[in-house]
Amino acid sequence: MPVDLSGVRIIPNDFSWVRARYPVPQLKTSADLVGTSLVESGVVRADAYVNAVETLVARFGADRYFAHRKEADWKLDLIARMGVEVVQPALPLEIVARRGPIGRTIVSFPSTVVHTLPAVLAEVGAEVVVCEIAKEWYQPEATPRADDFLGRVSSSARRSYGLAAIAC
Fold it and tell me: Whole-model pTM above 0.85?
């Protein structure tokens, strides 16, 4: 994510070592979804999140869901019942994506991967799409800072990489 620190030289990670190590991955015709642990961390409601995943599966024809390492088994079971292959990667998603195959479209909730995947897949032709978190998804105890932070993750990725953002 962009960092602005006065007087500090910042060298962005362009993931050139990953791109040099792994050739351009094969693109699948179907889409991939990238999961998040926002439910497990108490930020968003489980029902809203699971409904959004179901909507995204139908809208994008997604057939694979990359789970976050902290996602609960009960939630992943619900997602698997949607007919989606749930993958719990042993390696960072950036390496998994580069090794391929990867979806022609990759849909992610606000996360660091909306900043890293565009760099890793720069010359591949895969489109990374950010699914915005709707206000009504938040748990009552979630602070306004959570919405502000997730919004900044999303908006900075759109500015930096020209990513599309969608309402889920």
Answer: yes
Q: What are the residues whose beta carbons fall under 8 Å from the beta carbon of 47, sequence distance 6 or more? A: none
The distance in angstroms from the start CA to the end CA of the chain is: 23
Cα–Cα distance, 61 to 55 (Å, whole number): 10
Q: Domains in the chain and their CATH numbers?
A: 25-167 (3.40.50.11110)
Question: For residue 142, how many C-alpha atoms fall within 13 Å in the half-sphere facing its CB?
Answer: 23
The helix (H) or strand (E) run that includes residue 55 is helix 46-60
Sequence-separated (6 or more) residues with CB below 8 Å from residue 148: none
8 A C-beta contact, residue 88 and residue 108: no
Cα 74 from Cα 77, distance rounded (Å): 5
- CA quadruple 110, 50, 53, 122: dihedral positive or negative? positive
Q: Are strands 31-34 and 105-108 parallel, antiparallel or unpaired?
A: parallel
Q: What whole-number distance in Å separates Cα of residue 145 and Cα of residue 158?
A: 20
Mean pLDDT by 10 residues, the chain (168 residues): 78 92 96 98 97 97 98 98 97 97 97 95 95 94 91 91 88
* DSSP state letter for 25: P
CA 8 to chain centre: 29
